[in-house]
Amino acid sequence: MSKPCFIHADLDAFYASVEQLDHPEYRGQPVIVGGLPGDRRSVVSTASYEARKFGVHSAMPVVQAHKLCPQGIYLRGNMTRYREKSAEVMAVFADFAPDIRQISVDEAFLDITGTEKLFGSPAAAGKKLKEAVREETGLTVSLGLASNRYVAKIASGMSKPDGITIVATGEEAAFMRALPVGKIWGAGNKTQEQFKKYGFKTCDDIHRLPLEHLTSIFGASFGLFLYRAVRGEAASDWKSAAFDDDDRGSHSMSAERTFPYDLYDEFTIETALFEICETLMFRLLNQHWQSRTVAIKIRYEDFSTESARETYPQPVGSINELFDHLSALFRRKYQEPKVHGRGVRLIGAGLLNLETENTPIQGELFDTANEKERALDKYILEINKKFPNAALRRGRSLMAGG
């Protein structure tokens, strides 16, 4: 039996790289995607590596980025184009692995266990995958290879951009113990402050502590997470618990976004949620499904997670309706930082119990407006499929076509 092997594939500075691919004059220049310097409350979604040299990073207010890099090229972005390129990349991934878990528009996990006869060793498979992505999409991707997804995720960030890091089976603990605590994926800003308070500088400092000591400091759930993480175990639950519980055997789709920095601003969080709604609704329409059950997941910097779901009498009819439903769930479950002192690390949404579009549902007496909204979303989807550069969007998102 083949040893388990997972790849975490992370596209390099994705939004900015797509812009540089489409606009040769931007290549080699500091490109900042997220908003224009004068846009109120806009934040950086992605900064090219040229911009990062000036200290610009994701989740930074664009006003602050402009102070650091006034000569940068600032763009509001084009999510339709980014989704198109993401689909191209995922199609390449599908040629290499039967099991792909896309966790955001620019990253995914591939289970390549047992594919040695097709692609050779894991190292050879990784090299072929990188070459295929570059040749077929024009983009570069950094890879992490390991026996579990958690270690693969961290490994992919070790040699960016355009790198590959392989953690051999049996070397997971040694790999993790050598890292600074800042590399622990899932340990946010507040946790990093606790690490400083207790003098934890490397994962080895945490590794030396018994489980009981960690749980006394960080609580039972996060203490156990840290205990497993620094040992290179499969420390995180990669199934979306908010979407999978009690849904085995039912068809569902979900999307989530993990932020590189903890977010405290509700406006920014809800902007990301709207982009997730766009992704889910276009997938739903494209595959001719409908759903009456929506779910939301909020993960905080201390790794605690809130989730909720709601089933409605009628199928979700449009992007805006889905956003309204999920926003209501978000406000119901969200624990404000001023009360609890925790930032949001991940936001996710799901559509559960999917049915085909022709499944009979008792109609409402006054549903004309909802039908018009759905027809508009379908129209946008078809236009963008035929003319990718059209970049038509719904008006609520800040990421207007650029």
Structural description of this entry:
By secondary structure, this protein is of the alpha+beta class. Helices cover 41% and strands 18% of the residues. The chain contains 17 helices and 14 strands. It has helices spanning 14-22, 49-52, 62-68, 79-94, 116-119, 122-137, 149-156, 172-177, 189-197, 203-207, 211-218, 220-229, 241-244, 266-286, 319-333, 337-340, 368-386; strands at 6-11, 31-33, 46-47, 73-75, 99-104, 107-111, 141-146, 164-166, 253-263, 289-290, 293-300, 305-311, 344-352, 355-356. The chain has a five-stranded mixed β-sheet with strand order 5-6-1-7-8. A four-stranded antiparallel β-sheet has the order 9-13-11-12. The protein has a three-stranded mixed β-sheet with strand order 3-2-4. The radius of gyration is 21 Å and the shape is globular. Mean pLDDT is 83; it is low at 237-250, 361-369 and 385-402.
Low-confidence stretches: 237-250, 361-369, 385-402
Number of strands: 14
Main pleated sheet:
5 strands, mixed
Into which percentage range does the β-strand content fall?
15-25%
Task: Give the CA-CA distance, first to last residue.
Answer: 49 Å
Overall pLDDT level: 83
Class by helix and strand content?
A: alpha+beta
Helix residue percentage: 40-55%
> What value does the Rg take, in angstroms?
21 Å
Shape: globular
Number of helices: 17
